[in-house]
Amino acid sequence: MTVTSAAPNEITLLQPDDWHIHLRDDGALATTVPHAAKRFNRVICMPNLVPPVKNTTDARAYRERILTALVASDIDASRKDAFDPRMTLYMTNQTSANDIQEAAESGIVQAVKLYPAGATTNSADGVTDIMACAEVFAAMEKYNLPLLIHGEVTHDHVDIFDREKRFLDEVMNRIIREFPTLKVVMEHITTGDAAQFVEAQGSNVAATITPQHLMFNRNHMLVGGIRPHFYCLPILKRQSHQEALLAAATSGNAKFFLGTDSAPHPTHKKEAACGCAGCYSADIALPLYATAFDSVGKIEMLEGFASRFGAAFYGLPENTSTITLTRTPMQVPSYYPYFDGSQLTPLMAGETLPWSLKA
Ligand SMILES: NC(=O)N[C@@H](CC(=O)O)C(=O)O
Ligand SMILES: [Zn+2]
Ligand SMILES: [Zn+2]
């Protein structure tokens, strides 16, 4: 006997949070803040501004700029009230144990971000010798401040497609061994190796996964023409890795949760001879994730991933309001107006998604 249960056409979830987003600064905030605030309650704001958010004073000032943009936006008052941007510090070679204590006691800094110098957009001020940061990691362990990692090695001789795997072997293993109770999030994982690595660790080690790494692989980016709007770091990998990430995200394992890595770059800087890395997805991320989960018949696993596991990892309460996604097609805008008269092209611009948010 075969039991067939039709996949649902509608799903209601607790309001999601985004545990990895780039809102940028100044003029960009008028676009990025309302997009994020319409969709998510808590968001963890990445600190890779120019110059970076290096200490609690910088974080407080950045948070104020975000809140000013929120107040000035025309989104519903209920969304303005619910939006809760949480800050991160950008770890440099100069970050001190004192900086960590101050951040932990501030109530507005949720985590510390580690960018190996040269690994990604605005990472030039990142850490050059990770193992020289022992004192800072020890302070984070002591004050229970999580470490968020862009996990790629940066040596010139390591192939771009191997940089995440090499980071697991060369760096992650040591950090976790030497700081066994440090809370660590491997951000935007892109390989089956990273998913397996995270699964094998204790509950203090987790990972975020982006919509693009669940929906696409490097063929989508490179076969039949080069598509710069799929270019982000860590770069899309082969299909078997995409499948492993989909399996991890939809498994119900609370170590894997939502982090869009929505990373705006103006269209003209992506469609260029040397295009910037980053996919912009904040506004459409939930229909994207729904499409990915539904593609493997696992739409019912979306709530844990999008709305519960991240809060549990950070020790925060669950949201109480809900959203509803329906199997009603939506067209992704071909662009959003961005600051200084530029445009912002979202992931899947102009395409139709099978899922949308119910108003
Ligand atoms: N993911 C990206 O490709 N880009 C991000 C930086 C990052 O998260 O690595 C950005 O800030 O543009
Ligand atoms: Zn990154
Ligand atoms: Zn990012």
From TrEMBL:
<feature type="binding site">
    <location>
        <position position="265"/>
    </location>
    <ligand>
        <name>substrate</name>
    </ligand>
</feature>
<feature type="binding site">
    <location>
        <position position="188"/>
    </location>
    <ligand>
        <name>Zn(2+) 2</name>
    </ligand>
</feature>
<keyword id="KW-0479">Metal-binding</keyword>
<feature type="binding site">
    <location>
        <position position="48"/>
    </location>
    <ligand>
        <name>substrate</name>
    </ligand>
</feature>
<feature type="domain" description="Amidohydrolase-related">
    <location>
        <begin position="18"/>
        <end position="324"/>
    </location>
</feature>
<dbReference type="InterPro" id="IPR006680">
    <property type="entry name" value="Amidohydro-rel"/>
</dbReference>
<dbReference type="InterPro" id="IPR004721">
    <property type="entry name" value="DHOdimr"/>
</dbReference>
<keyword id="KW-0378">Hydrolase</keyword>
<dbReference type="Pfam" id="PF01979">
    <property type="entry name" value="Amidohydro_1"/>
</dbReference>
<feature type="binding site">
    <location>
        <begin position="22"/>
        <end position="24"/>
    </location>
    <ligand>
        <name>substrate</name>
    </ligand>
</feature>
<feature type="binding site" description="via carbamate group">
    <location>
        <position position="113"/>
    </location>
    <ligand>
        <name>Zn(2+) 1</name>
    </ligand>
</feature>
<feature type="binding site" description="via carbamate group">
    <location>
        <position position="113"/>
    </location>
    <ligand>
        <name>Zn(2+) 2</name>
    </ligand>
</feature>
<keyword id="KW-0665">Pyrimidine biosynthesis</keyword>
<comment type="pathway">
    <text>Pyrimidine metabolism; UMP biosynthesis via de novo pathway; (S)-dihydroorotate from bicarbonate: step 3/3.</text>
</comment>
<feature type="binding site">
    <location>
        <position position="261"/>
    </location>
    <ligand>
        <name>Zn(2+) 1</name>
    </ligand>
</feature>
<feature type="binding site">
    <location>
        <position position="22"/>
    </location>
    <ligand>
        <name>Zn(2+) 1</name>
    </ligand>
</feature>
<comment type="function">
    <text>Catalyzes the reversible cyclization of carbamoyl aspartate to dihydroorotate.</text>
</comment>
<feature type="binding site">
    <location>
        <position position="150"/>
    </location>
    <ligand>
        <name>substrate</name>
    </ligand>
</feature>
<feature type="modified residue" description="N6-carboxylysine">
    <location>
        <position position="113"/>
    </location>
</feature>
<dbReference type="InterPro" id="IPR002195">
    <property type="entry name" value="Dihydroorotase_CS"/>
</dbReference>
<feature type="binding site">
    <location>
        <position position="20"/>
    </location>
    <ligand>
        <name>Zn(2+) 1</name>
    </ligand>
</feature>
<protein>
    <recommendedName>
        <fullName>Dihydroorotase</fullName>
        <ecNumber>3.5.2.3</ecNumber>
    </recommendedName>
</protein>
<feature type="binding site">
    <location>
        <position position="150"/>
    </location>
    <ligand>
        <name>Zn(2+) 2</name>
    </ligand>
</feature>
<feature type="binding site">
    <location>
        <position position="233"/>
    </location>
    <ligand>
        <name>substrate</name>
    </ligand>
</feature>
<comment type="subunit">
    <text>Homodimer.</text>
</comment>
<feature type="binding site">
    <location>
        <position position="277"/>
    </location>
    <ligand>
        <name>substrate</name>
    </ligand>
</feature>
<dbReference type="InterPro" id="IPR032466">
    <property type="entry name" value="Metal_Hydrolase"/>
</dbReference>
<keyword id="KW-0862">Zinc</keyword>
<comment type="similarity">
    <text>Belongs to the metallo-dependent hydrolases superfamily. DHOase family. Class II DHOase subfamily.</text>
</comment>
<feature type="active site">
    <location>
        <position position="261"/>
    </location>
</feature>
